[in-house]
Amino acid sequence: MKPTPTPAVSSVIFQGSALPDFDPRRVPVAAVDSQLPAVAPAAQTPQALRHRFASAPVWEPEVVLEKKFMDREPAHAAVLLAIVQREQPMVLLTERTAHLSTHSGQVAFPGGRADAQDASPAETALREAQEEVGLEREFVEVLGSLPTYVTGSSFIITPVVALVRPDCVLRPNPYEVADLFEVPLAFLLDPANHRRHVFDHDGSRREWFSMPYQDGEKNRFIWGATAGMLRNFYRFMSA
User: What is the pLDDT of residues 36-89, one digit of tens each?
Assistant: First the structure.
């Protein structure tokens, strides 16, 4: 399969959670987008990121919808794409606990379902990040949001991008979070690390991205919705 060099707004990806014994790590890599340029380090500084959201370019998200695998009412949610301002900017991610009803054991952004009292997706993302990983709002500077992303489990997710001060103290909720880790922003904004997968099931062709990251002795397998939203962030940053 040849890599797609330009955004495809109608792209559909598949999370795969409904299939028994499905392991996305075992699905062959169809292509790697190493022909696309990485986002320059100068564009990843706090000042550059603030300017990017203040004067956003004309762009289109590449992946917006997953193949539906769960029959449930749609629900709005928001996640926090938190960029920790270390010497090298890092993106905060979680590994969800195995007993959760949706996306259990997967790599995810802090976030969750919107509550009626939330005034905006940013409020949802901040509240959920505080509840999930103990990230206090005083450490967070919201930059803006990316377009909504619809998961196969019928969540309509708004990714909220924010800068996070490195002196924050995190206290992950053990019920929801099995592990908490960071990945270099530069790694995630380099398409040479974006792998495309194709899976045929019951006559249906399904595709998704993965961005595996070797974190010491642990291989962090970023895929599905999280990888799709990161791919859209790359498209936003490179437009």
Answer: 999 999 999 999 999 999 999 999 999 988 766 667 788 999 999 999 999 999
Helix (H), strand (E) counts: the chain:
4, 15
* CA 211 – CA 138 distance, rounded (Å): 30
**Residues listed for the chain:** 239
Residues 6+ apart with CB under 8 A from 12: 63, 65, 66, 67, 206, 207
Torsion-angle region of residue 224: left (phi > 0), alpha (psi -120 to 50) or beta? left
What pTM was computed for the model?
0.88
Residues 197 and 117 sit within 8 Å (Cβ to Cβ): no
Using CA of residue 138, residue 140, residue 142, residue 147, what is the dihedral sign?
A: negative
Name the nearest CA neighbour of 89 among 160, 188, 170. Answer: 188
Beta strand segments in the chain, E: 11-13, 29-32, 63-66, 75-84, 90-96, 107-108, 111-113, 140-145, 149-150, 155-164, 177-184, 195-201, 204-210, 213-215, 218-220
Second-level CATH architecture of 28-238: Alpha-Beta Complex (3.90)
Domain boundaries, the chain: 28-238
Residue pair 185/174 in contact (Cβ under 8 Å)? The answer is no
CA distance 189 to 39: 6
Report the alpha-carbon distance of residue 144 to residue 162 in Å, rounded.
7
pLDDT tens digits along 142-185 = 999 999 999 887 899 999 999 999 999 999 998 889 999 999 99
